[in-house]
Amino acid sequence: MYVKIINRKDVKMSEMMQKITPHLAFNDQAEEAVNFYVSIFKNSKVVNVTRYGEGEPGPAGTVRTVRFQLDDQELMAVNGGPSFKFSAGISLYVRCETQEEIDELWEKLSEDGEKEPCGWVKDKYGVFWQIAPSFAWEMVNDPDREKSQRVVKATYNMEKLDTETLKRAYKG
User: Fold this and answer.
1) Model's pTM, two decimal places?
2) What is the predicted pLDDT for the residue at 89?
3) Based on CB atoms within 10 Å of each CB, which residue in 48, 65, 84, 156 is the most buried?
């Protein structure tokens, strides 16, 4: 087996990025938000930070962009100014393996934010997250319409999703 070792000096940054990368535009909290997210998710890290230089739109030395990974998923953050606002029209969907993982992420992401119905959280930076068990997608898309509708209805009665309640709803 042949493995190529990538030397960052020999490869353009754009060649090391995944094809589609979610890009989050903050007013001026990109670095703070990224550090918060990286502290919550396993297998996470800041990959690259760029800062404004003299004569650029932001104050020299402040963060322009942050490239980071959350559980090996690459994202970008930018300080874009006050015209950028988050809405529930786009969210980050997190598949959790256990109720404990759901509980932990739910509490940490909702700290100083808002707990929303159906497993949604709006964090303190305004970013929307869906915290769901890994099996939820299959359940709500089951071809057996009765099963899927019972699960959907069960989620409507919850804020944080409860795996056992969803399993009971699915079974009928």
Assistant:
1) 0.86
2) 92
3) 65
Cα separation, 101 vs 132, whole angstroms: 10
| Per-residue pLDDT at 104 exceeds 70 | yes
CB count in 10 Å sphere of residue 51:
15
What is the CATH class of 18-79? alpha beta
| Spatial contact of 73 and 92, defined as CB atoms under 8 Å apart | no
Separation of CA 41 from chain center: 9
**Which pairing describes strands 63-70 and 128-133: parallel, antiparallel, or unpaired?**
unpaired
- Of 20, 132, 36, nearest in space to 76 by CA: 20
CATH 3.10.180.10 maps onto the chain at 92-171
> What type of residue sits at position 160?
K
Tell me: the pLDDT tens digits for 19-44?
A: 889 999 999 999 999 999 999 999 99
What CATH number labels 92-171? 3.10.180.10
**Residue ranges, CATH 3.30.720.100, the chain:** 18-79
**Do 119 and 93 touch, CB atoms closer than 8 A?**
no
